[in-house]
Amino acid sequence: MDRDRMVDVGVMLVSRFGAKALSLTSVAKHAGVARATAYRMFGGKEALIAAIVEREVAQLRERLSTWAAAQPDAEGKVGGQVTESLRYIRENEALQYVLRNEPGEIVSALVSTTHGGPALVTQIVSAALPDVDDDVRARLRPNPEAAAEFIVRVVYSLMLVPDSAMTDEQVAQLVVAAVLAPE
């Protein structure tokens, strides 16, 4: 049993039972391995959670690059990333379970810097910035890091409070207007 498979099982368990029910014992049981194997791989629940978050952020980074690459210009790249991120959030079973049943866990992950790691917002900004196209980067205001942080914060505010008078496309248009300097 490899580490990636254990992370898959952890995500599946969160999808079914929530983040609070996640434990190395439950992951081991559902993965069909000895509890000692799970503890050897991760050492503790916090390391398992960190591995899940790390993988999810890496997958988000890949998706952001794909969504941006599908667009011809800076406005399309930023707008596409916003609309597709919102769609991804709505379709992510584990995230939706936790949002419905344990929203405090999400809020904690977004803002907490416990366990020696940065808040989730900071992790996503750091992961996404290296892949920003030069033409987009040159237009981001007030600077690329601040613009990326603003985008992430807007998307996550809509994740936490999904009811909106705006469509995803309208949200994306406003974000684009806020973070891209005119050509």
TrEMBL record:
Keyword DNA-binding included in the entry's annotation: yes
Alphabetical UniProt keywords: DNA-binding
GO MF term set: DNA-binding transcription factor activity; transcription cis-regulatory region binding
Positions of the HTH tetR-type domain: 1-60
PROSITE patterns from the UniProt entry: HTH_TETR_2 (PS50977)
The keyword Transmembrane helix belongs to this UniProt entry's keyword annotation: no
DNA-binding region, residue intervals: 23-42
InterPro entries: Homeodomain-like_sf (IPR009057), HTH-type_TetR-like_transc_reg (IPR050109), HTH_TetR (IPR001647)
Protein name (Swiss-Prot/TrEMBL): HTH tetR-type domain-containing protein
The organism of origin for this protein: Gordonia crocea
Source species taxonomy: Bacteria, Bacillati, Actinomycetota, Actinomycetes, Mycobacteriales
